[in-house]
Amino acid sequence: MKKIVTAEGSGNPGLQQKSTLHRRDFLRYSGYAGVAVAGASLISIAGCQDKDDNDGVDFGTGDFAILNYAYALEQLEAAFYQQVIASPYAGMSALEKGLLTDVRDHEIAHREFFKAALGANAIQDLEVDFSSINFSSRDSVLNAAKSFEDLGVSAYNGAGRYFVDANYLLLAGKIVSVEARHAAYIRDLLSNGSFADSSVIDGNGLDTSRKPRDVIAIANAYIVTELNANTLPA
Amino acid sequence: MNFLQILNQVEEQEPEIFDRLDSRRKVIGNFVNFGKKLTLISLPFAISGMFQKAYGQNPGPAVLDVFNFALTLEYLEYRFYQQGVNASGLIPTGAPLTAITSIRDNELSHVNFLKTTITQLGGTPVPEPTFDFTGGNGTGNGPFSAVFSDYATFLAVAQVFEDTGVRAYKGQAGNLIGTNDLLEAALNIHSVEARHASHIRQMRKFNNFGDVKPWITGNDPGVGAANALVQASYNGEDNTVQATVNIVNIGGQSISFNAASESFDEPLSKTEVLAIVDPFIV
Fold first, then answer.
1. Beta strands in B152-280 (DSSP E)
2. B63, B110, B160, B168: which one has the fewest Cβ atoms less than 10 Å from its Cβ?
3. What is the mean pLDDT of residues B143-168?
4. pLDDT computed for residue A130 by the predictor
5. Rounded to whole angstroms, what are the CA distances from B92 to B16, B143, B147, B207?
6. Please, what sign has the CA dihedral across residues A103, A106, A111, A114?
7. pLDDT tops 60 at residue B8
8. Least CB–CB distance from A205: residue in B4, B106, B243
């Protein structure tokens, strides 16, 4: 919200009465480009956007929005693996426990990294709900883990294009390959040899990408805190 | 002058501009989305990119260089696995041969995809080099002379190629920033290479060929006596400071050095990668 508050000072108060205008879009837009574009034109531009939902956690703007999006997913993954290690499923071997503990620590490291790097721009801690997962069942846990890891890989792959700053793109790149290593490991635990099967890799040998709003729609099944996906790229 | 005036003037000069750009409404919609992501200073580049896309201009030699560099690495990987699969008795039948065959097929798909992409961009795909997978630079008698007769050596070389490939793509991502679909395709290959690396590492662990995990710990190659030969592929992977943030015990959490190094893979430059693969290219 901090950026919006900043932008509000320079907004034209009269525009608030033009009903179809999505206030946040206008404010964000004017914050970036207001000096170059006349106010009258802004109404017609913003009017093309058909958004009503203003509720939920605001991811922010620009590269910060994408970093917060990654932070949200890392919060979800870290919380999941913390539960996995806190209440190991029946028959978890020592090797599995060791490597799943590694995965937990990697996800915590990712989560804490984003929190530290975003600083005051970071979104809040998210409340999660894993009640659909049976943590005593190996199958249930590993299938959930597979979903989370494949989702994470597809999310980072789909988000790369939105970065303006190459340093942030590189950081995302440093993380996504670790998520892909996790995904392959979890898949092989479930079914050896499924590390890169046709459910995730297409005929060109390319991994999956998902758009931010599609990822949030999937992740929402495990996140209680309301997220405003409208603050992410379409 | 504002953006809409620019569009109006372009439309006067080029009445079909909105056919090329899809529709006026969509252009403006896209522009609103652009506005969310871009700082003021980069706005002119966004507009320029929109028109470049509409007029199909090629993305420039730097982007083609990235894709031809990637193609060289994919040739290397594909030919390596193809020769491995064809080497009688090298890879045990069943799960191991199935896995290596599917990795080979992914690499061939990457080769074909990159060749097609380079051609579509108006470039010329580089030809496939001649390889010496013993690492002997054409002598056929390099340090990995048993690469197609000894399963452990084969998997060690596979691991190094995959881990290096991941680092190579990562190092090129910044050169593709702003190319949207091209960047995304490179990222989509990058994560497949990481999946391969994870599986090859599991195969090595399973066979007691090396005490390795699916991820890279510190800067340890994990290939025993051959470590010194391939160290360049792992140098820098022991980094535990990301964007000035120290990952060890970050945020009061108990994060070991090993976990901190594993949780972020590191890039390699094109120069570093070419030096690493040089002994394998005649």
1. 241-242, 245-246
2. B63
3. 98
4. 98
5. 61, 23, 15, 11
6. negative
7. no
8. B106
**Nearest chain A Cα to B258, which residue?**
A102
For chain B, which residues make up each domain, given as ranges? 3-55, 61-280
Angle at B151 between CA B148 and CA B154, to 5 degrees: 55
Please choose, from the candidates B183, B178, B186, the residue with its C-alpha nearest in 3D space to the C-alpha of residue B48: B178
Joined tokens for residue B218: 């510190």
Tens-digit pLDDT profile for residues A199-224:
999 999 999 999 999 999 999 999 99
User: What is the Cα–Cα distance from A196 to B196, expressed in whole angstroms?
Assistant: 7
Number of CB atoms found within 10 A of residue B8's CB: 12
Q: Could you give the domains of chain A?
A: 16-228 (1.20.1260.10)
Return d(Cα B270, Cα B187) in angstroms, integer: 16
Of A65, A170, A205, the CB nearest to B113: A205
Dihedral (Cα; A44, A45, A46, A47), 10-degree rounding: 40
Tell me if B264 and A174 make a contact (CB, 8 A cut-off).
Answer: yes
Query: What are the Cα distances from residue B175, in Å, to A158, A169, A210, B121, B178?
Result: 17, 10, 22, 16, 9
pLDDT at residue B240 tops 80: yes
Rounded Cα–Cα distance for residues B10 and B5 (Å): 8
Partner B, chain A 81-140, Cβ-Cβ below 8 Å: 99, 102, 105-110, 112-113, 115-117
CA–CA separation, B257 vs B216, rounded Å? 12
Tell the residue number behind the tokens 């005929």, with chain if given.
A203
Residue B45 pLDDT exceeds 90: no
- Contact present, B196 and B78 (Cβ < 8 Å): no
CA separation for the pair B155, A120 (Å, rounded) = 46
CB atoms B173 and A160 under 8 Å: yes
Q: Whole-prediction pTM value?
A: 0.81
pLDDT per position as a tens digit, A125-177: 999 999 999 999 999 999 999 999 999 999 999 999 999 999 999 999 999 99
| Cβ-defined contact of A113 to B242 (cutoff 8 Å) | yes
- Give me the residues paired with residue B58 across strands: none
Using one digit for the tens of pLDDT, what is the confidence trace for B114-130?
A: 999 999 999 999 999 99
* Of A188 and B30, the one with more pLDDT: A188
Q: Give strand pairing partners of A57.
A: A227
Assembly ipTM? 0.82
CA-based nearest distance B100→chain A, Å: 9
Question: b/e for B133-160, b at 16 or more Cβ within 10 A?
Answer: bbbbeeeeebbbbebbeebbbbbbbbbb
d(CA A46, CA A20): 8
